[in-house]
Amino acid sequence: GFRFITIILKNLGCRFVLCASGDLVKVYSTRTEEWLHSLQGHTNQVTGITLNPANHLQVYSCSVDGTVKLWDFIDGILIKTFVIGLHETVEIFLSSGLCVSACPECFQLVSVHLPKSAEQEVEAKEMSAVSSHISKNPSCTAFGRGGEYIAFARHLQLNVYFFRKQKTYSFSLKATDKKGAKNAFTCIACHPTDDCIATGHEDGKIRLWRNFIHKKEYTYSTQHWHHNAVNTLCFTPEGTHLLSGGIESVLVQWQYGADNRKEFLPRLGGSILHISASSDGQLFCTSHSDNKITVIESSFKVCGVIQGLVKDAVLTDLMIDPRSKALVLNGKPGHLQFYSLLRDKHLYNLDIVQQEYIYEAGLDQFEVVKAAFDIKGSWLATVEERGKKSSDLEFFLKLWAFDERTQSFVLNTTITAAHTDRIISMCFSSSEETTMLVTAAEDSQFKAWCQGADADTQQDQNFWSCDFVGSYHKLNPTNCSFSADSSLLAVSFQEVITIWSPDTWEMLTTLCQPPGVIRDLCFGRLSCSKYLLGTTTKNLLCCWNLLTCELEWSTSVDVSKLQPDPFSENVAAFSYQSKHTDLFVFKPSEPRPLFTNKNVCSEKVHRAVFVPREEPLNSCDESTQWLNRSQLYFLTQNMDLLTFSTATEEDRMLSSSKQLVIDDSVAVTPFYLLLGKHRQQQQKLNTQSHPVADKPQQPQGSLLHTPAHVLPAASVLCSMFVNSFLISNTGVQQDPLRYFVHIRLKSNGFSYSVMHLLSISLKFLNSFI
């Protein structure tokens, strides 16, 4: 499984961005915005990362598993593991070989000496307590002046600990000032060269502390722009500017030494949680509450966005777009996000609400609460609403048509009064011939919506209209579902399930045996299409046979989510009990589970989806055969997206992660891809036709990136360069680029000497510099 958490950034120069994601450290390219590889080795959530001060090609990471690991992040190699004597390490700060980690049990700041050893796993035994009862927020701790001191704040107190003196100076603020502002500390940053500490506060103020070496003579100045709490602060490497960010989603750049001279970069997305600057100061990175990394040039222009799965409240179900096979769910406010699970990459956002979202707490704004696709992916239905109370409720039902030209969904119909109360369930018919949408609401009605001929003009209409309104004894419906062939519609009204014929809208029968309100409802698939499954609030899972209209079987289990696989007969049921969730996979025709996994996670599961595979697996293991046609993904309450995979898939993923990554400095143009593929095929043919021992030794790497003192003589390079243009006499078709250059040399009819060829070669090479 994998999960996306709030990201913590550290970057090297202008090439890479590293971020913690679950139990991995992911490495991205700042130029292509692509994921390069992951540092995999921790057994629990990674909580902090920092570059090795002694070697900027290495990075340290700490985890809840109680270890600190040293990595070569360029090649993705684990160099060393330090076992810390603490049960959990929340954050890590490094300077001059000294590791300061925060322990969550009492939130102590502990200084740990990382021993030098040839062994790959070393136990760090030498440690001492720096301070106790520090802030739980890692942003409230920072090193200053190359590790001479460490500053940390908690509530209304700022502490500065000097390592040489082994002495702590403390400075306190009042809870509120004369104007009633909240002075609690929220973040800290230390100037790289001066004795200056910048602190952010709950009221949006930034204080610059100086002369704190002398406790009685300290001073501070105040700067104010943010209207809410300052989430993060960061000095540029030269110390000429201070960067700040908060809930306003605006990056503010303050000029150091110039009072209130600042620049702004607005509308960056979610709240800014963290800021990082490259070692040369050419790039800044901001991480946001919507699980996004924004790459910004020093000129304050956005040059890249790395978007992960948006970490926000998911109100819609997990859905799969039938066209792109992308995962679809709530994205940034007012949007649906389309996310490729295969590539682990965000594709795009679809603006549903089409209103500017204001990032301010307490505002009542429209949210997307329901969404559904038809079977072909040609139509998308959404429900957006605002208002917590029924008297203030406002909602819209929208139908979106897929546009082949733009390859996106375009708004087709907006229904402002679809129901008189909140819509709680909706589904599309499974028929490919006619498309029908059914909505059920708390106004005791369900409605069928169709696109067809107008009753008055008898002409085809491009918009949707209501075709039927149904109810049952004025009971509120709770769920609705179509059968696999769309010949039946099941609508649950409290404890009663009604079966309808969509062709005549005749109510065929009712099912009311189980006690409790119906919570989930779904039909069986393929050979189990004659069964109807339902869960109740009385912790019952029931299965009805629709041919006999009788209860086939039932079992007592508290099912929080019932998810059928549309590509097989399998159904997944998540059961929450004793503070953990269990998974059962079964067929409606046989109540005995095919697969059981106890303690899948510690939270409730309310969202799940089966994702179709591009190619079915040929698994021989009985316990994994249910994964052959599709893969199950589910979302926990902590917004962790988890999945099940087979051993074969794990081996394939591991082998693919070991493949070399193309240098991101190479421009991946269509012409490059075409010639690159052709040259790979040509090299393969040459390898088969010529033994390796007979081939001349080729220079490794790029000439432009190799030091001049280790290169061979120019005459050797020239002959090798010219030989690369010659056509082989083996009869094998040559690279079209080489053939083109060779013909041009021959057709000009000139006789070139070696020195002329050397001059041409050098000019050719210089054209790439």
From TrEMBL:
Signal peptide feature range: 1-19
SUPFAM superfamilies found in the cross-reference section: Quinoprotein alcohol dehydrogenase-like (SSF50998), WD40 repeat-like (SSF50978)
Entry's transmembrane regions: none
GO molecular function: RNA binding
Superkingdom classification of source: Eukaryota
Main subcellular location: nucleus
GO cellular component, one term: small-subunit processome
Keywords associated with the record: Nucleus, Repeat, Ribosome biogenesis, rRNA processing, Signal, Transcription, WD repeat
Record flagged with keyword Membrane: no
InterPro entries: Beta-prop_WDR75_2nd, Quinoprotein_ADH-like_sf, WD40/YVTN_repeat-like_dom_sf, WD40_repeat_dom_sf, WD40_rpt, WDR75
GO biological process per UniProt: positive regulation of rRNA processing; positive regulation of transcription by RNA polymerase I; rRNA processing
Intracellular or extracellular location(s): Nucleus, Nucleolus
WD-type repeats, residues: 39-81, 178-209, 223-255, 416-449
Pfam families: Beta-prop_WDR75_1st (PF23869), Beta-prop_WDR75_2nd (PF23769)
Domain WD repeat-containing protein 75 second beta-propeller: 318-639
PANTHER family: WD REPEAT-CONTAINING PROTEIN 75
Name of the featured protein: WD repeat domain 75
Organism classification: Eukaryota, Metazoa, Chordata, Craniata, Vertebrata
Name of the coding gene: LOC109058288
